[in-house]
Structures are given as C-alpha cells and as structure tokens.
Amino acid sequence: MLEVQSPPENISASVIDGGLSVRWGLPKSRGTSRPRCFEYQLDMGDQERPKNVAAELSYTEPNADPTCTYRVRMRTRKTHACQDSSHWSDWSHTVTVEPSVYTLSTLVIASISLGIPMILLAVLLLLRHQRVSKVLFPPIPRPPQKYKGFLEKSDTFNLFHSAPPAEPVEEITKVEDMEQKPEQML
What we know:
- By secondary structure, the protein is α+β, with helices and mostly antiparallel strands.
- Helices cover 23% and strands 22% of the residues.
- It has 4 helices and 7 strands; from the N terminus they run βββββββαααα.
- The strands form 2 sheets. A 4-stranded antiparallel beta sheet has the order 4-3-6-7, with no helix packed on it. Strands 1-2-5 form a 3-stranded antiparallel beta sheet, with no helix packed on it.
- The chain starts with 8 loop residues before the first strand and ends with a helix.
C-alpha cells in the first residue's frame, strides 16, 4: 500500500545571527516516528532548486540578508532505509520571514541631528567658561598711574608730573640758635 506523507508540522523560521534558521516537527506517519526515517525538501523562495535535508529537524542557511523577505515551505518523504518507495508529500503552508529593519522617523532624525551638536556646544562652553566670561564681562578699564593725580586734583597744566597727594602734608623745620664764639670760628 502506498502511503503519502503529510508535510512537516510546526514550521518556524527566523533570521538569527546572520543566518536563516528553519525548525520543524516530525510529520504524521503511520509506521515510524524516528527523525532518521524522513528526508525533507526545503524551498526558501530565493533558489532555483530546493535544499535536501535528511534526518534533521532544523536547518540554518548561512549569510542570510536581514533586509530580505523569505518565504519558506517544506515537503517530506520517507527514506529508502525505512521504506522502499515513497513519494513526496504536498508542500506545507508558506512561512514568511519579514525584514526587521527599524525605520527612523523624522522626529528621531531631527532630534539626533540637533541634539548632539547642542550637547557638544554646551560641553565646549563649560570647558571655555573663563574665556567666555572675560569676553562677555570685560574688566573695567583704569587710567594709567601718571594720570591719576591729574584726575584727582583737576590741575590742567600738570599733565606729565605726578601731582602731590590730595591731603595736606605738614612740614616742620626745627631751627636752633647757636652763638658762635670768635675762638671757635678760627
């Protein structure tokens, strides 16, 4: 009696670590439920010929493109070791693996493009705070020392000589009378 197998059950596919990983369960069968008795054809939709997988319940296609959409389907049959003649089952339902690329919104792009330069400018201003404060608040200029007396006394004719201090200074001279004797003069 010719037994036509059902396709594998619980097919799942995902892109993991740069490879397309496909897992499935054993098909329903009357005679045996050993994985080594089945061989599978795996169609990932991007190849000319399906991949043949024997005695396994998973397959990983290396170097899968994470931006590509994959449509995976499978079929099965018993191996010659477990049964003389077996036909391929019907194809399973198609499992679609969509790309998981995060699209940036306009608001996120604008926030990043304006936020990073503003943060860098704030750091630069903090590092250059002393220089910025001198530019924004320059010191009040003071006149040179030679003009201070002139400005304090308002003497218009004494430009180049320092003026005496504004406080009056008392000068005391002590004079002593001494009589001179004629003998001492010689």
